[in-house]
Amino acid sequence: MAEIFWPDALPADFLAEGLTIQPQSNVIRTTMDAGARKTRRRYTANTTKYSGKQRFNEDEFIVFKQFYKTELADGVFRFNYKDPITNEMAEFRFTEDYTAAEVGGIWEVTLPLERL
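The structure corresponding to this sequence follows.
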């Protein structure tokens, strides 16, 4: 597990609408000179990409930006976060920078994450 945890001051759940989950391929297929292709697992564990949104008020958005910039070094480091499907703590990292849009004083932030 990572040493960094999602801040308690922030909501820990994605919004239900717009959550996408994309398991990454963990299979290698090799074409043979004759016969069927050989198939095997690449790793014993693979990653899954998640993309979802959270809503933050102004104070929460400030906490989130500070967490991302300082604790995660602009998204470089891994952190512990609640898996939106299993509700178990798991290790995640950002796959790219977050995006945020302010709507009526509420920040809607898209989190592109990868479960490790």
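The chain has one domain: 20-115.
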